[in-house]
Structures are given as structure tokens and as C-alpha cells.
Amino acid sequence: MNTHYAFSRVSSPGLTLVLAALLLTGPSIPAADGKPSTATELFGYAKIWDVGLRISEEAYRTLAPTQGRGFDRDYPYAEGQVAIAGHAPLKVGLRYKGNSSYSSASDTKKKSFKVDFNRVITGQEFLGMTKLNLNNNILDPSQARETLAFQMFTDMGLPSCRTAFARVHLQVGKDEKSEYLGLYTMVEQVNSAFLKGRFGTGKGLLLKPERNNSFPYLGERWKDYESSYVPKTETSPEFHHRLMEFARFVEESDDKEFAGKIADYIDISELMKFTALHAVLSHLDSFLLRGHNFYIYLPRIDGKFHWLPWDVNSTFAGHRSAGSAAQQMNLSVAQPYTDSVKLLARIMKIKAARVEYAKQVGSVLAGPFKPELLRSRLSRIEETISAAVSKDRNTDFARFKANYTEPEERSGSSRPGPRGATRNGARSGMQQKPLLSAFIAKRTASILAQLSDGAEGYIPRASTHRSRGSRGGRPEENSRRPSRGPFPRRAPPEN
């Protein structure tokens, strides 16, 4: 039986209590007693809440993309309502989000959503947030990749998004009953409020590069940078000049100048930590390969650029077009990026940077990637979400459970569920994502073999498309040249 969310009026007396009492049919594991009063209480890697969405039939029809495909899709907003974790419903803007996660959910209502609290009612917030993401985990049979990865970035002291799990219901039309869409991951939005909390100011230059892993210099016209660097904030020409200056420096400085001045633009330790996490997690749907799914923030005109993670649901060797699962689990620690990632390639020529990078890889292995810590977190996550996942018609529940119990992949172990032939890594023609339990064991063994025995690691193939806005030639067709040891024995010239 479907739960019917009574949304009739936002101001209806007693509605908060009604919504707080609504439970998913079947067993439910609350993450905390009562409704959260702060964002800190809302988020946590082992918390789960009920979320109700309501939208009119007419508005629901307008959510489909109006133009474009893939990265260029245009997702229009429509007015709807959202009720989160027992709080009274709020009028909000709703739209779909995602690329592969949207395409893979084409025949189901379980799309990913972006919730804009400020779009319908100016100045409206929810627990201090103006936006919130509801990610459908449609391509992650474990349902946990995004949660685990963001937590690891946080554990390493990097600015990253907070998450929590959500049982999401959707009601389309006034008289229809709400439909249980399944388990989602709630993800904090990177915006001015987020930045102010991490950097003390949200008024800097925020970029979300797309098809850009080379940091190209594109001249002195700001508009030439917009499609490749994709600014998300309105800032002054002085901020624009700082970016152009840095891009020109990366592209045109000689090795000696680069080594001497790169620390004026970036925190080398921070970027090496950021890269080490991507490498250990085999996260290739990112700046290491595709040139997307990350943010860059410049808080001050004369300050340093900071890299922020985003869309980490393809971590743990989960990127279906970046090589086989076996290759991704054996990703080179010395060079986890393609030759086309010019900034990293240049930084890794500097001996002090390589030493710092090796140090950060060790910190990740000894810290958030410790197998016993990960297994403990996986156990808590499984306990928290298992009941909700079991009722999700878009998830292969047997495959979900295997991520938490099976030490390695077994031939023929994955039998798609009712809709599993098209989702959760079992889509026809797609490579299946490795089990999390198997990844932890195999990735640890691969890294240790590379660091101690000089074993070869997989260097990813360069993207076959040009970076958007790039003035350069065709990217290198890379190179499956193996790495040897913690750093290549064919060491580049040191500066």
C-alpha cells in the first residue's frame, strides 16, 4: 500500500505532526529522534529521512529537458512542494539533474532532483540551505559510493559536501497517492552558503569546469572562458583576470618559473591530497580523465585556487567508460591521470610535489581508506538503508547485499532483479561496477604492490574529445604505459 502525503496546504494546522508520523510501509530505521533543527543534525553518513515531493500533473510534464542531450541538457524548473524529515512542506522549484543517472532512469520516475528553496519564495531557506540535491543512485548497486567518498574527503580535511540518505515519495496531482521512488542520497549544494561556511566568504569566483582537464589559456576575453570553465558566481573583472593569469601561467611558463611560482596560485599540499583521494578511490569520472565533476573556488582576488569534489557516485572504480573494472582497481598511483591533464603533469615534475603526493597517498591509506574502518562504515550503512532498498523496485537487492558481504566478484553471481537488466551497473552493454567489498580488498593490494614492489599500474586513456574551448590540438591518445613503483622510474626533469 502506498503512503499518501497530505500536502493540501502548506499552512494546514497539524500538518507537521502528520508528516512526522508518516512511515514507509514496512520496517523503517530512523537516523535520529525527532526532526532535525540544523543542517548538522540532518546530515550524516548513516542517517536516513523521509522526503515527500508533490507536483501538479501539468508542472510534472514540464520537467523533461527542453533541448540538448548529455552535458548540454537544459532542465527546466517547475513549482512543487517538498517535505523533509518531518518539517512542514515548502513551496520550491524542482528540476531533474544528472547525465547518465538521468538517461538510465528514462523509463522510471526515479530521476535525480534538484530542490531550490529560494526559487518560488525569495529568501526562503531550509536549515540554512537554499538548494539541496536528491540523487537517485540508479547506477550504483551499493547505494553507498557517494556517501562513502564524500565522507573520506571530509575526513581528510578537504571542503566537501555533506550527505544523508532519504526514502523519497512522489505525489503527482492533487488526488493521486504518493509513490515510493526508492532510496536516494541527499547531497549538499556547492553554492555561496556552502562556500561561506568553508572559506568564510561566498563572494569569490566559483567555477564548474566541463570537458576541461587541461586548464587552457584562451586569451583575454572573459566570454571565451565561460563554456569551458563555467562560472557559477557573478564576480568582478579582477577575479576574471586572476583566472586568465593563472591559465596563461600554466600554459606558457617555463619549468623553472612554474616550479618557483605555482605556490602563489594553489596550495600544493591541498591539491596533492585531493589528487591522492581520487587516485585511491579510482575516481576517473572527474578531472583525472573527463575534465568534469569538480569545482574550483577562488575566495579572494589575490588568493589561491581550491579544488572541490562533486558527483562522486562513480568512485570505487564505478566509471563505466574509463577502462575495465580490473583496470580501474589497478589504477596507477604514480599517474592516475591522463597526459592531457597539463596542470597535474607539470606539478608532478616538481620533486617536492611528488614527495607531498606520496605522503598524502599514505595518509589516505592509513586513514579513511583503512579496510577495517571502511567495513565498519559499510556495516552501519547497510543497517541503515537495507529496509528502504528492499522496497526499491529499481534496485537489484541481491546485488546490493553482495556489496556488503562478498569478498570478491563471482562469475554469474549477479542476476538482475525485476528491472536490473537496465540499472545498477547491470545495463546491457555496460560494464558492471565492482562490489565495494571486492574493491576495498583489491585496490588495497594493488596500491601496496605498486608502492612496495614496483608493480605496474593502469594509466587511463586520454579522453577522445577535445576540451571545450581548447585551442590545442587533439589530445594524446594515451598511453597505456605502465607506472613503476610509487613514482615512475622514467622520472621527469626535476625543478
Topology overview:
Elements: H1 15-21, H2 39-42, E1 48-55, H3 57-61, E2 78-84, E3 90-97, H4 100-103, E4 112-116, E5 131-135, H5 145-155, E6 163-172, E7 179-188, H6 192-199, E8 205-207, H7 226-229, H8 237-252, H9 255-261, H10 268-280, E9 294-298, E10 306-309, H11 325-329, H12 342-347, H13 351-366, H14 371-390, H15 397-405, H16 436-453, E11 456-457, E12 483-484
Parallel strand pairs: 1-6
Antiparallel strand pairs: 1-2, 2-3, 3-4, 4-5, 5-7, 6-7, 8-9, 9-10, 11-12
Largest sheet: 7 strands, mixed, barrel
- Sequence of strands across the biggest β-sheet: 1-2-3-4-5-7-6
> What is the number of independent domains?
2
Q: Taking Cα atoms only, what radius of gyration do you get, to the nearest Å? A: 23 Å
Helix content: 25-40%
Q: Output mean pLDDT.
A: 84
Could you state the order of secondary-structure elements as H and E? HHEHEEHEEHEEHEHHHHEEHHHHHHEE
Sequence stretches where pLDDT stays below 50 over 5 or more residues:
1-33, 411-422, 425-430, 463-486, 488-494
Structural class: alpha+beta
> Would you report the number of β strands?
12
Distance between the termini: 67 Å
Tally the helices: what do you get?
16
Shape descriptor reads globular
User: How much of the sequence is in beta strands?
Assistant: 5-15%
